[in-house]
Amino acid sequence: MKIVAYRFPSSRPRRLRRSKNIRNLVQETSFSISDLIWPVFICEGTNKRVEVKSMPGVFRLSIDEALKEIGKFHQLDLPAVALFPCVPEEDKSADCSNAWNPDNLANRATKAIKKEYPELLVMLDVALDPYNINGHDGLVSDGIILNDETIDCLGKQALSHAASGADIIGPSDMMDGRVGLIRENLEANGYKDVIILSYSAKYASSFYSGFRDAVGAGSLLVGDKKSYQLDMANSDEALRMVQRDLEEGADMVMVKPGLPYLDICRRVKDTFNTPVFAYQVSGEYSMIQNAIIQGLVPEEETVIETMTSFKRAGCAGVLTYFAPVIIKYLKE
Ligand code: PBG
Q: Ligand 1, closest atom to CA 281?
């Protein structure tokens, strides 16, 4: 056996990893507070802060509490929130008419927040599930999720949200034709500057359980959402959905869930060169947060790693329940 002493290699990649400064100098992606949308659960009442069981550290907040909490992080440069109403059972119905009630919880919260913090971007979901007695995103008849009847409702819902001052409308229902219908209705009613961030590539996922618990839709859900949300095995289909939504008038698109679908984020970004957002959903939050609580992984480093991964995959920004943690960390 002959062992040859290895002398100077022509390249030493470790030169660029030697110190923090050189690493930062050559870093390909970075993220900041300006990339964050914070999803916030809103409940009725005053003075309410109720922890979501499956999402330790995440609270349902009454509007007055949400104002304080959101204000705190807005002052630290949080650019946007996504509000999710936890609608009490008595306000749910089969026709979901509370979805476009100008005084529903989502609309009241939006008015209050926009009044207090006009610069903060407020995003509202458009889908019927918080208002539905069976947990579905659309109207149900004989076990079938009705498409065309549902999008008529979504158009009305979107208009009520625009009227209450929402800056961004996020159709999360996965019905066909909803972005086009919403866009036409917004235009026809003078809301031409309202942004549509479409949940274009929203997969039928097990990672939404915590969210459904939080908004009180989980125990009501009859069956599953596979007749409208995407099959986890598909990737080309996601591109077709994004293309359709952009053609129908979406300004930005979303991939959801986040980490298990980074390949989709990258494909969408490379194919369409349009702002792509990832939603790091409730189940992803719960997994990471529980590992943090048990001391299995470090908090800041782990959360920052996931954010960096989203940016590396081409995302413009991320919806994440970790937004408060990230802000505190970045401000330290
Ligand atoms: C409802 C909606 C869901 C989420 C956002 N909007 C749940 C679902 O589709 O059942 C999930 C978000 C999360 O899990 O954090 N249309």
A: 15
